[in-house]
Amino acid sequence: MKKLRVGTRKSLLSARQTELALAALAKVHPALETEIVPFHTRGDLILDKPLWAISNQGKGVFASEFEEMLLRDEIDIAIHSGKDLPVLLADGLEIIGVLKRDDPRDVLVMPKGKKAEACKIIGTGSLRREQCAAKVFPWAECRLIRGNIQTRLQKLKDGEYDAILLAKAGLDRMGITEADGYAFRVLSPEEFLPAACQGIIVAEGKRELSSFVGAMTHLETQYIFETERAVLRLLGADCSAPVAAFAEMAGEVIRLRAMYGEGYAEGKAPVAARLQLAAEVVGRLRK
Question: Domain Porphobilinogen deaminase C-terminal, which positions (predicted)?
Answer without folding.
Answer: 227-260
